[in-house]
Amino acid sequence: MVMHFCSLFSGSSGNALFVREGSTSILVDAGISMKRIFSALDSIGTDPKELSAIFISHEHNDHIKGAGIISRKLNIPIYANENTWAKMINLIGRVAPENIRIFETGKQFRLGDIEIKPFAIPHDAAEPVGFNIFANDRKLTIATDIGHVNPEILAHVEGSNLILLESNHDLKMLQIGPYPYQLKRRIAGKFGHLSNDSASEIIMHLCKCGTSSFILGHLSKENNFPELAYLTAENTLRAMDLVIGEDVFVEIASRDCVGRLVEV
């Protein structure tokens, strides 16, 4: 069996990621309408009825918008930590009691053919997490909505075979852009979002630790361009004498278009 990953949608307008291993298929976040998520799954040859669960990273609308209705439609559980559930339970509509599942941040557990470890991230939410997902000695990491890089984050992402990493904004674009000052301050702050430059620092670190597959995601529509995020990463890798397409795999996750189904 091979673990597969697909970024269905990734950006400030909504996030939904798909992971499959064996008979276990999950969504990580569901911040897009059910109709669009189901259509995206169909486009990669997956019946939504095959979904085993939804995992929620934090309670912001671009991560939870479709979670409740999908849970009701398919009668599948939603996993989140206790503080996230407390914030989102009144935002996603009724969820059957048996489908309210609570995990403990930092504690690894098994669901079907995969193991999941939620890890704490710095973001302005109740108890936000990233996810390490393990199967068959492979490690997939999902790390977005991260305000700043710290040793704990690096420890959790090291050893990943594939990582979806936030590359949210270009700092200069943010500074001169149309957002009000307080929003700019939030995005660039310690509990906001990773810039292209910060993402490249993580890429540099991970390459030194052996990771060679990266998907850059959660790009801002107003404060970034896919080409700019890619170029920033490419320049970092070139400085390490690494060539994209030969030594390292780098791809940009789209805000609006379904990505490729990738083997981890």
Would you state the CATH class? Alpha Beta
Shape, per Cα inertia axes: globular
Strand order, largest beta sheet: 6-5-4-3-2-1-14
Mean pLDDT: 96
Going by helix content, strand content and strand pairing, the class is alpha/beta
E-strand count = 14
Give the fraction of residues assigned to helices.
25-40%
Separation of termini? Answer: 11 Å
Largest sheet: 7 strands, mixed
- CATH fold assignment: Metallo-beta-lactamase, Chain A
In short:
The chain is 30% helix and 26% strand. It is α/β, with parallel strands linked by helices and 264 residues long.
Provide the fold topology.
Blueprint: E1 4-9, E2 16-21, E3 24-30, H1 34-43, E4 53-55, H2 61-64, H3 67-74, E5 78-81, H4 82-88, E6 100-103, E7 109-111, E8 114-120, E9 129-135, E10 138-143, H5 151-157, E11 162-166, H6 171-176, H7 181-188, H8 196-209, E12 213-217, H9 226-239, E13 249-252, E14 262-263
Parallel strand pairs: 3-4, 4-5, 5-6, 10-11, 11-12, 12-13
Antiparallel strand pairs: 1-2, 1-14, 2-3, 7-8, 8-9, 9-10
